[in-house]
């Protein structure tokens, strides 16, 4: 079992009368890649800033290896941050940037030189010591920001949407780079993003947040395959979310048709939300499906076709490698295992409302 | 955390100290303008509006005031037009010629005002009689760099594809310029106008050397007359000028605040002031 | 007509600057190097070496250096505090500091006369409190005080502008890497504020070195600066425009040289390690 490193206990934070975080509880283990995922304004950046020491929570504690560090300023924490817009020191060259933290700790010159060299090698930018930050591309600046943080050998590296400003190709390259870095360094990464694809690719654990509350914690597979509520299902990937009724264990009534499923324990005749991923819907001959419908549109997406099927008064989103032309009568069939049943949200709190960070 | 508190308190004390230092002289001018004491203005001799009455009937001060405003407005206007044209012209230039032109712009900025004034006087006195027009030319020369400095960065950050898009949509170059390019530059142009206007109002040295006999701006009038027993009028004038400035500031600030309110207003709230 | 920005638009500006800044300076140089009979001479540029002119010249340099240092020392903390204020949307406080700049500087100087006169407000207060009088009026200290007061905003604003450009994340990053308040100030904030400091120093030093009207209003003719010498050379009974031109040229060359040295020094500073 991995060792517990940081524990956030009952953290609350508000600005004025706007509540950002409300009684948040979360722990991080050693040597993990943890991603906090959510829309802007969900409180993920604030959580990160509390971890880094840039914000003090109104209530709650930050425990680092059993020690309360809630009031400890950032410069005394064994945690380093990679900032969203890099925040490189533009008046210093790359070497001075990377050496900044080490010089403050009064490390020897030779130690610093070796460390800088090592860090630059690690981020694939050897030989850039004397360049100025302005002369580097966005992706290179990003790597320098990472190098500058990791030379201090932090126990935890915090990354605040570090790839947000990069273009798609570079972003994908950097994702693999980050996974490699994490494995080489063996430290914990806490990564904040609103990009679900990024989160699914890199993480060991994903924390989905919305409106200051944690919606679900789990492995990428858990989060994708078994979302606990409509928000998570909607935010991660594409999905058909249908208000339905749980007739009894393993039997759900979707839009007037009974589907066999594998979930139990929701009670009898209870309202639930059903999630079916578009790639889990199988289009068959009309007679072989559970319900009948008609294809209304079909778009080629490269890997698959994206089709919309009108059936039982609902527009089903379907991904399939087999094209059914618009106008075709089809049957819809879903493996019972792929029907994910969720509780209806308890309150309006969980309904998503976007506002700026 | 205690250290932070000490720093915060020290900051506040320093800020207040600076504000007092900055406003004390102005406050004293205002109080003095209401002081009835005839000779020594440092002694309170009772409340009086006499200074204001005398100010209105003092033709010399009123004329100087008129000249100052006319001069500043005219010079700022001409400078803004010439300066803005120059900035747009610079877009079409190679880097080298642009650098040369900016170097030229820096001459009156870096030169001492007194040298600029003296040099202009030498030019004028050689070829023409000193008049209001020589003063206007001198002021334009002095303030035009400030317009260029305000407008030039805006021009350089201009998104030229917007202009091209306007052309693409069928606009003539002139129409595209007026409707698409100029609105982008307005903040810089306004700032340039305001700054150059202020610089002209405040100038003494250049005016002093290039003015015609018998014409005064506020600055040269004060310099010539401040010993001659018109202090009360000048204090009254200071008070009025200060209140005017305060009013302008207040209006500008209110507009700014309204804008903030408009953006921050609740979803249902109407958005006022779309500027 | 495809590209935005016709070089021709800069034409009027170029003509204006050539005619009214370059030509006058050429004329100034011509006058400086010729005698009353029009023949070439070096006597006019050599008059600066005469102690009668040299002493005020050195006094001006000393005074402007002192004024600049005082302004810098007062302004830096102020700009730092203002940066913090503007962080929480308080642009109003910044406006408050610009406001006095809008008052005519002659009127502001007049206010200091009122305060510093021997029977002025300062001495009234000191006497009332039982202290002795101070005789600041008509000394160089009064002139320094007035000059600092007039030019302080020209130091505060550029530094403030440089400081607000520093991203809060950059400061957070330094803190994150282990820097305390003092280290952040020394290694991040001060180096990044250098451009503002440079232009602040320029904007205070250049006008204060050629100052002559504050000197005559608060120095009462007892504080004789190079500006006063030049003014006398052109505007008194003993007017000698050739000697005046020579002195103006010396002043201009001094400013030019110090600017070049200053920028060079600053350039080296910027490139070398700031640790």
SSE order and pairing:
The complex is a heterotrimer of chains A (357), B (275) and C (275).
Chain A: E1 4-15, E2 18-29, E3 33-37, H1 44-52, E4 59-64, E5 67-68, E6 79-82, H2 94-104, H3 109-122, H4 138-150, E7 156-160, H5 168-185, E8 188-193, H6 196-202, E9 205-210, E10 213-218, H7 220-225, H8 230-235, E11 240-248, E12 251-254, E13 257-260, E14 270-276, E15 281-284, E16 291-300, E17 305-311, E18 314-320, E19 329-334, E20 340-343
Parallel strand pairs in A: 3-8, 3-9, 6-7, 7-8
Antiparallel strand pairs in A: 1-2, 1-4, 4-5, 9-10, 11-12, 11-14, 12-13, 14-20, 15-19, 16-17, 16-19, 17-18
Chain B: H1 2-33, H2 50-56, H3 59-91, H4 95-110, H5 113-127, H6 132-156, H7 160-168, H8 173-202, H9 205-210, H10 218-225, H11 231-264
Helix pairs in contact in B: 1-11, 2-11, 3-6, 3-8, 4-6, 6-8, 7-8
Chain C: H1 11-32, H2 43-46, H3 51-87, H4 91-98, H5 105-116, H6 121-128, H7 140-164, H8 168-176, H9 181-209, H10 213-218, H11 226-235, H12 241-271
Helix pairs in contact in C: 1-12, 3-7, 3-9, 3-11, 7-9, 8-9, 9-12, 11-12
Overview in brief:
The complex is a heterotrimer of chains A (357), B (275) and C (275). With 357 residues, chain A is α+β, with helices and mostly antiparallel strands.
């Amino acid at each position: 079992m991995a060792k517990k490193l940081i524990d956030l206990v009952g953290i609350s934070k508000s600005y004025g009368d706007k509540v950002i975080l409300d009684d948040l509880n979360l722990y991080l283990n050693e040597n993990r890649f943890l991603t906090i995922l959510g829309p802007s304004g969900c409180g993920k950046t604030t959580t990160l800033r509390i971890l880094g020491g840039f914000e003090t929570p109104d209530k709650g504690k930050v425990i680092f290896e059993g020690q309360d560090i809630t009031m400890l300023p950032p410069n005394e924490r064994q945690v380093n941050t990679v900032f969203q817009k890099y925040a490189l020191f533009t008046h210093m060259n790359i070497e001075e940037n990377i050496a900044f933290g080490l010089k403050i700790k009064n490390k020897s010159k030779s130690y610093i030189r070796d460390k800088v060299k090592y860090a630059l090698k690690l981020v694939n930018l050897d030989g850039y010591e004397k360049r100025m930050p302005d002369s580097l591309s966005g992706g290179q600046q990003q790597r320098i920001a990472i190098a500058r943080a990791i030379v201090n050998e932090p126990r935890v590296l915090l990354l605040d949407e570090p790839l947000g400003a990069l273009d798609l190709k570079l972003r994908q390259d950097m994702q693999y780079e980050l996974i490699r870095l994490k494995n080489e360094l063996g430290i914990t990464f806490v990564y904040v993003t609103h990009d679900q694809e990024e989160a699914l690719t890199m993480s060991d654990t994903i924390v989905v947040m919305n409106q200051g509350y944690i919606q679900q914690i789990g492995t990428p597979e858990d989060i994708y395959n078994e979302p606990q509520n409509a928000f998570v299902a909607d935010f991660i990937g594409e999905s058909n979310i249908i208000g339905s009724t749980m007739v009894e264990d393993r039997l759900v009534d979707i839009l007037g048709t009974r589907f066999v499923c594998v979930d139990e324990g929701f009670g009898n005749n209870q309202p639930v939300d059903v999630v079916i991923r578009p790639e889990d819907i199988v289009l068959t001959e009309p007679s072989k499906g559970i319900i009948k419908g008609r294809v209304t549109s079909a778009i080629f997406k490269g890997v698959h076709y994206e089709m919309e099927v009108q059936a039982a008064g609902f527009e089903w989103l379907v991904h399939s490698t087999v094209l059914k032309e618009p106008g075709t009568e089809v049957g819809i069939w879903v493996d019972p295992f792929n029907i994910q049943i969720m509780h209806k949200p308890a309150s309006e709190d969980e309904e998503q409302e976007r506002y700026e960070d | 955390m205690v250290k932070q508190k000490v720093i915060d308190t020290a900051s506040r004390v320093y800020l207040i100290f600076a504000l007092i230092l900055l406003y004390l002289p102005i406050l004293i001018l205002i109080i003095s303008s209401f002081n009835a004491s005839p000779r020594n203005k440092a002694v309170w001799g009772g409340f009086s509006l006499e200074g204001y009455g005398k100010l209105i009937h003092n033709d010399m001060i009123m004329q100087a005031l008129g000249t100052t405003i006319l001069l500043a407005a005219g010079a700022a206007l001409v400078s803004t037009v010439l300066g803005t044209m120059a900035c747009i012209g610079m877009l079409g230039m190679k880097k080298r010629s642009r650098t040369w032109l900016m170097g030229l712009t820096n001459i009156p900025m870096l030169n001492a005002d007194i040298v600029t004034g003296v040099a202009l006087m030498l030019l004028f006195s050689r070829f023409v009689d000193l008049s209001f027009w020589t003063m206007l030319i001198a002021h334009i020369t002095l303030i035009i760099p400030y317009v260029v400095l305000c407008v030039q960065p805006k021009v350089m950050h201009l998104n030229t594809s917007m202009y091209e898009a306007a052309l693409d949509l069928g606009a003539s170059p002139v129409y595209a310029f007026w409707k698409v390019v100029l609105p982008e530059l307005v903040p810089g142009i306004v700032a340039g106008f305001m700054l150059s206007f202020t610089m002209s109002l405040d100038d003494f040295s250049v005016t002093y050397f290039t003015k015609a006999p018998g014409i005064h701006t506020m600055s040269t009038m004060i310099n010539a007359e401040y010993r001659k027993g018109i202090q009360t009028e000048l204090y009254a004038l200071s008070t009025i000028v200060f209140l005017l400035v305060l009013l302008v500031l207040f209006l500008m600030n209110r507009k700014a605040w309204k804008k903030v309110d408009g953006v921050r207003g609740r979803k249902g709230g109407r958005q006022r002031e779309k500027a | 007509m495809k590209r935005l920005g016709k070089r021709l638009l800069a034409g009027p500006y170029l003509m204006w600057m050539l005619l009214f800044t370059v030509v006058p300076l050429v004329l100034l140089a011509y006058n400086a190097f010729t005698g009353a009979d029009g023949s070439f001479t070096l006597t006019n540029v050599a008059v600066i070496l005469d102690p009668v002119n040299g002493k005020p010249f050195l006094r001006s340099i000393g005074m402007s250096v002192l004024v600049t240092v005082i302004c810098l020392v007062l302004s830096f903390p102020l700009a730092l505090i203002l940066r913090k204020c503007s962080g929480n949307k308080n642009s109003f406080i910044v406006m408050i500091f610009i406001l006095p700049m809008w008052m005519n500087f002659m009127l502001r100087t007049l206010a200091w006369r009122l305060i510093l006169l021997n029977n002025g407000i300062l001495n009234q207060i000191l006497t009332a409190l039982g202290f002795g009088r101070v005789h600041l009026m008509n000394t160089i200290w009064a002139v320094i005080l007035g000059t600092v007061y007039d030019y302080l905003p020209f130091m505060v604003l550029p530094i403030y502008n440089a400081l607000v450009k520093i991203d809060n994340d950059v400061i957070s990053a330094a803190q994150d890497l282990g820097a305390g308040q003092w280290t952040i100030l020394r290694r991040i904030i001060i180096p990044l504020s250098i451009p503002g400091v440079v232009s602040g120093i320029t904007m205070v030093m250049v006008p204060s070195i050629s100052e002559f009207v504050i000197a005559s209003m608060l120095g009462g003719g007892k504080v004789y600066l190079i500006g006063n010498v030049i003014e006398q050379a052109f505007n008194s009974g003993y007017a000698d425009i050739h000697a005046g031109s020579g002195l103006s040229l010396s002043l201009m060359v001094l400013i030019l040289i110090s600017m070049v040295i200053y920028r060079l020094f600053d350039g080296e500073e910027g490139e070398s390690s700031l640790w």
